[in-house]
User: Which sequence fits this backbone?
């Protein structure tokens, strides 16, 4: 396709050189799809014009942040809109908020904040997502619950598939919709006082049963905010001994490691797991399992030679699978279905589309009728529409 109008609109920021298209054919899922053209808008008005053209000429569009999702959410054979060039932000200290373009990162804003102020959202990952991608793919954070996160998002400006612009005070309407209904063009986050808290306890176990007995006891401790279990292979990857590892996170200083320096060093080490795994050719996939199934699930996965870690309190389990083995991954999901659910916490993308619950599919179809009836945005993702 020629895309004459888009090239006129964006000039050199409408790119279809083979090398660039190849570079945009991947995200962190291991799936590959080459876009037909990559657009790099800088302003909301350009995003709106792109959507208007798409409606007029029936183009299909997929928004993309930094491509860190692990479910094939940011790859397409249609038009890819790379929002990473929209990365400005404006801090308004006296009103305690920051306005961020969708390609900005929380860590960049943090660097510019005066001492004592913070954004109280921790994406729990060193893979730095864009704020647009983070909200669109459904922020999952083991340390904070979803309602709390909503309260930190004061406003979201987004454009739907028909080109209509909205400012949502309640982010839940666009939260986790993976670019299928809206392109997020601005996010207003609350600024709050920086908290210094938490401490850790770290214990190795030779027996998974003994570890789970301790985890069950810890559940009742009031200042516990996270109980994480690492399989021996994951534990070794973190630089601990190769045995079952239990890490308890406290909101106060009850834990053994409590100085700010130690806490930050441990946090960094834990967050490096996904990176170490990625460097060895593994990708993380997730499921939510019931606590009663924790022993069986962890034990089976360990026996199959797959490293794993479980956020015991909410049942969120990361399993590391060699990224050249997508069929193995599908077997893994199928085998889990009886005892667990496949969450869309990091998005459903193309990889997990098969596992989207029927209720969510129906809801999306209705939303598409309102917000994207020409099926311009992210066609084929989450649901098949028309
Ligand atoms: C191993 C691993 C572990 C992770 N752990 C966590 C974690 O614990 N907590 C956590 O919060 N995050 C975590 N993440 C990050 C998270 O899952 C996503 O990767 C991230 O939120 C996506 O941001 P991105 O900018 O890379 O978006 P992309 O990967 O580029 O896109 C993700 C999805 O959002 C859509 N999208 C992107 N930008 C926009 C926009 N402006 N408007 C509308 N739709 C858009 C895309 O179409 C796509 O469907 C993890 C990632 C990895 C790889």
Assistant:
């Amino acid at each position: 396709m020629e895309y004459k109008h888009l090239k006129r609109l964006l000039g050199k920021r409408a790119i279809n050189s083979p090398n660039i298209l190849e570079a945009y054919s991947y995200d962190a899922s291991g799936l590959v799809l080459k876009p037909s053209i990559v657009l790099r808008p800088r302003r909301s008005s350009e995003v709106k014009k792109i959507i208007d053209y798409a409606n007029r000429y029936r183009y299909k569009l997929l928004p993309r942040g930094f491509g860190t999702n692990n479910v094939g959410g940011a790859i397409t054979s249609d038009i890819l809109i790379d929002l990473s060039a929209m990365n400005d932000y404006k801090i308004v200290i006296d009103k305690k908020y920051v306005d961020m373009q969708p390609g900005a990162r929380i860590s960049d804003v943090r660097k510019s904040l005066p001492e004592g102020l913070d954004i109280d959202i921790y994406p729990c990952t060193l893979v730095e997502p864009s704020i647009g991608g983070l909200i669109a793919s459904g922020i999952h954070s083991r340390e904070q619950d979803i309602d709390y996160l909503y309260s930190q998002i004061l406003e979201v400006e987004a454009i739907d598939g028909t080109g209509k612009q909205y400012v949502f005070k309640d982010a839940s309407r666009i939260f986790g919709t993976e670019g299928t209904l809206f392109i997020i063009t601005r996010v207003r986050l609350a600024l709050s006082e920086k908290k210094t808290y938490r401490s850790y306890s770290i214990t190795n176990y030779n027996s998974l049963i003994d570890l789970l007995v301790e985890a069950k006891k810890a559940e009742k401790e009031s200042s516990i905010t996270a109980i994480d279990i690492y399989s021996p292979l994951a534990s070794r990857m973190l630089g601990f001994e190769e045995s079952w590892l239990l890490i308890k996170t406290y909101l106060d200083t009850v834990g053994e490691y409590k100085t700010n320096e130690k806490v930050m060093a441990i946090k960094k080490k834990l967050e490096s797991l996904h990176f170490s795994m990625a460097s060895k050719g593994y990708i993380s996939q997730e499921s939510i399992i019931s606590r009663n199934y924790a022993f069986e699930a962890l034990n089976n996965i360990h026996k199959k030679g797959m490293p794993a870690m479980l956020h015991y309190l909410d049942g969120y389990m990361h399993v590391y699978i060699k990224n050249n083995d997508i069929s193995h991954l599908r077997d893994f999901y199928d085998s889990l279905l009886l005892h667990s659910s496949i969450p869309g916490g990091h998005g459903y993308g193309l990889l997990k589309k098969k596992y989207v619950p029927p209720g969510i599919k129906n809801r999306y179809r209705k939303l598409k009728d309102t917000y994207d009836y020409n099926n311009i945005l992210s066609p084929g993702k989450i649901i098949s529409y028309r």
